[in-house]
């Protein structure tokens, strides 16, 4: 599996590298004893590597046959919600909510959970409470993507901001075809993805399961 740096992190990493370089140069020039600049440089290196790790973007290919009714995880993380609920923005009725929470150590690229056609994309302003909390799905700032799956049923994907994640990037655009091997967007510094599915969907995962974006099958839709 090849890994590169995601385009969303390029400018941030360059700016961070310049800032740390200037600060460390000043520390080595003006601070004594030398042990202090050594410790500071070591901490700066760790901080840079953590941010570099956050913006990694592995190139992934689904290992099996991409079937029209297959649903895969949009992100790396942990399943934190799996319940019947009401989807208010598009379905406006009962749906099955499957949520995956990401920590700052997970890959933060977002994949499309189904192959099909993007029908609509909306952004909703809101709060920035911890994305691990159930009510963050409704109250936090988020972007919603409505997809008509290749199997027929509609699927809604919400990119949810969190207490740390304040920047949601959505590449999906109405009218475009999408595939589970394509990036749907990116969420910076930890958050969650909520996927709303028809109630009769067959689910393969449970709360607490770990998922890999673009790879882990999480459900199968009923063909319409």
Q: Termini, distance in Å?
A: 35 Å
Rough outline: elongated
User: H/E order of the elements?
Assistant: EHHEEEEEEHEEEEEEEEE
Oligomer: single chain
Please give the radius of gyration in angstroms. Answer: 20 Å
Order of strands, main sheet, comes to 11-7-8-9-13-5-4-15
Largest sheet: 8 strands, antiparallel
By secondary-structure content and strand pairing, the structural class works out as alpha+beta
Beta fraction: 35-45%
Task: Kindly report the average pLDDT value.
Answer: 87
- Identify low-pLDDT runs: none
| Number of distinct helices | 3
The helix content, as a percent range, equals 10-25%
Explain how this protein is built.
- The chain is 20% helix and 37% strand.
- The chain is an alpha+beta fold and 224 residues long.
- The strands form four sheets. The chain has an eight-stranded antiparallel beta sheet with strand order 11-7-8-9-13-5-4-15, with no helix packed on it. Strands 3-16-14 form a three-stranded antiparallel beta sheet, with no helix packed on it.
- The chain has three helices and 16 strands.
């Amino acid at each position: 599996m090849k890994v590169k740096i995601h385009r969303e992190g390029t400018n941030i990493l360059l700016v961070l590298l310049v800032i740390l370089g200037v600060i460390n140069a000043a520390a080595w020039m003006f601070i004594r004893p030398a042990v202090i600049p050594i410790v500071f440089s070591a901490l700066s290196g760790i901080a840079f590597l953590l941010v570099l790790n956050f913006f990694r973007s592995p190139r992934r290919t689904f290992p099996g046959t991409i079937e029209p009714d297959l649903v895969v995880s949009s992100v790396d993380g942990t399943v934190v919600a799996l319940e019947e609920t009401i989807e208010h923005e598009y379905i406006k009725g009962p749906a099955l909510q499957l949520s995956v929470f990401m920590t700052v150590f997970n890959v933060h690229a977002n994949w499309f959970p189904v192959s099909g056609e993007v029908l609509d994309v909306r952004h909703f302003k809101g709060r920035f409470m911890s994305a691990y909390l159930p009510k963050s799905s409704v109250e936090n700032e988020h972007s919603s993507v409505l997809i008509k799956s290749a199997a027929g049923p509609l699927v809604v994907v919400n990119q949810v901001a969190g207490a740390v994640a304040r920047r949601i990037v959505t590449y999906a655009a109405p009218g475009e075809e999408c595939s589970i091997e394509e990036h749907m967007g990116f969420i910076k510094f930890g958050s969650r993805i909520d996927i709303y599915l028809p109630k009769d969907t067959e689910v393969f995962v449970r709360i607490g399961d770990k998922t890999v974006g673009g790879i882990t099958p999480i459900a199968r839709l009923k063909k319409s």
